[in-house]
Amino acid sequence: MSIASVSFPPQFTAKSSSVIESGRNSSSWDLVSFSKLQRLSTNGRNFSRRLCSRYGNGGFRENQHGVGDRDAIIIVDHGSRRKESNLMLNEFVTMFREKTGYEIVEPAHMELAEPSISNSFDKCVQLGAKRVIVSPFFLFPGRHWHQDIPSLTAEAAKEHPGVSYIVTAPLGLHELLVDVIDDRINYCLSHVAGDADECAVCAGTGKCRMY
């Protein structure tokens, strides 16, 4: 499957070489520098939506109707040797499932921990999914988004020829992330000042302190 170009606002362009569904060949992208992306401001959300990879055993297909009853979502992070970090993804997936009401939502780690993308893809199909939506829990579109996650997902999909899939964009430049980071900063400062307990991320680590 070949992707000739990706649509960007007029001042930005990106080009890609061919993408092999097996995932053995990675895309070669000429991306704009993130310092220039600051100019996108109100267009940041549209830019994030354009940065997505569509694949599928059934071909290149537009998703016009959102998440459906036969869809499954895999939220994939990097994976860690630290057990507590991996368990936090499980907690996030539970939050996401309860908030959205989607029936099939599974966690996966790109490496270093289980379940793997392949494990979670298999489970989604076993639960009845006909389309799998892989959502990278990453900030920006680096190598893991361009190459590793699509490759691992393509390998997993080989075992399920009747199931299509998509690797969506990472979090990217989304204005809601401003609120998340601002909230995290102010909470940590409140903890250091003695006005708040440690948050779930820092609890027991002793890391949230002034040096």
From the structure above, extract its key features.
disordered N terminus, alpha/beta, 211 residues, 5-stranded mixed beta sheet
Write the layout of secondary structure elements.
Layout: E1 5-6, E2 14-15, H1 34-37, H2 44-50, E3 53-56, E4 71-77, H3 83-100, E5 105-109, H4 117-126, E6 131-136, H5 143-157, E7 164-167, H6 175-192
Parallel strand pairs: 4-5, 4-6, 6-7
Antiparallel strand pairs: 1-2, 3-7
Helix pairs in contact: 4-5
In short:
The chain has 211 residues and is of the alpha/beta class.
Description:
The chain is built from six helices and seven strands. With 211 residues, it is α/β, with parallel strands linked by helices. Strand 6, helix 5 and strand 7 form a beta-alpha-beta unit. Helix 4 (117-126) crosses helix 5. The longest helix has 18 residues, at 83-100.
Return the average pLDDT rounded to an integer: 76
Largest sheet: 5 strands, mixed
Strand order of the largest sheet: 3-7-6-4-5
Distance between the termini: 52 Å
Query: How big is the Rg?
Result: 19 Å
Envelope shape: elongated
Helix-strand topology string: EEHHEEHEHEHEH
What percent of residues adopt helix (DSSP H or I)? 25-40%
Please give the count of helices.
6
Total count of strands = 7
